[in-house]
Amino acid sequence: MYEGKPRTLFFRYAVPQMIGLLFNSVYTIVDGVFIGNRLGREAMAAAAVAVPLIEVLISVAIAAGSGAGVLIAARLGAGDRDGARRLFHAAAWMLGLAGLAVCILGNLFLTPLARMLGASPEVLELSAAYLWFIVTFAPFQLFSFLLGGMARNDGRPKLAMTALILGAGSNILLDYVFMYPLNMGIRGAALATALGPIFSVAILLPHFFRKKGALYFAPCRPRPGDARHILACGAPAFIMEFSIGIITFLYNLAITHYGYGELGLAAYLVIGYLMLIVLTLFLGMAEGLQPVFSHFMATGETSRGLAMRRFAAGAFLGVGVASCGLIFLCSRWFFLLFAPGDPELIAFAATRSNPYFCGFFLTGFNILMISYWQAVQKTGRSLFVSLLRSVILPPALLLALPVLLGREALWVCQSAADGLTALFVIISPCILRRGMVESSDLAKDKARNEELV
To answer: Quick check: 403 pLDDT over 70?
Structure first.
């Protein structure tokens, strides 16, 4: 299952997940296209409010799936299938309870939730209508990502890809049906987005009920410590995915604070769709490689793991450079998909997209290293880098740069954060090695002095 050269393993595991997750990103992007063409700028601003919540749900699911995946890979590498299944059940229980809580609390506090996510009075009603479908169908959103991650760790990466693609395809079809023939407005777009994960779950469930691999549903009693271990291992993945929601939320606040208004929010929505595509490429490849890195760690094949990491780093940087080049040349045509009749919005978004994406060729490298350190259970290092690029640097730069350089500087803050993070990732191993050498030298000197005494 894990035999072959780095190139072979990359195309077997990273590429299917990248393709599947890319199609899954079509959920929100297709909504934007239909909403922009059918309902206009105000509805686009209302939909933008829901994006952080959707990303939170996805990040919770990926955290549980990747955290359990790291531990499951170690169990399977050691031949402990019972332990692997116990961890699978623990992750399923965790997300089941989380989905139920989101559904209940979200419906109880729907309007306050919309306000908290940044809905202005003008779009509050539309935002709440969109959010109702997101919170009500949250359990399916969570389980579609969890089961996909478990299928990859169970040696079925193509099944996970198929589920994501068919879920996205159903969303495209339902968006058209609900918004045009049925004329359901923004509620139709939200319902199509909410129903997509149900199709993905339906495709994935037979693998686990029919016992087609090492992981399947069966009577099992998870241990209390399992949830804690899963969350600890999954924390970097949570932050990495959650960063999309965090950054979107922070930018929405900054755009409103600096007076860009509805135009700025709508423009950042379409820029965010483009950002989602780029990040999806990187996150998909990183998630796909997690079972590979974890397996090599569990079996002690350190040299193969490092060779895989070197090959992946080159691939991630190549994809990053190509993505930035395409954005600089073609972003205007992408934005035209959403608002062909709004030249002011298109011009505004195209002008701000170049500074926003100028450093994104380094984003993939950061995501790869976060995922690699998580997969080999260097969780502290992985978590710190995740926090650095999403929680520490972006807010600091959003607070400082517009004040120092003017409000237009806010559009470059995320690229600057990724550039500084990449610099840290590159130099930190050198600092650690130097510290280890110095500590070793000090120990030797101390030993010599003791001998002389």
So the answer is: yes
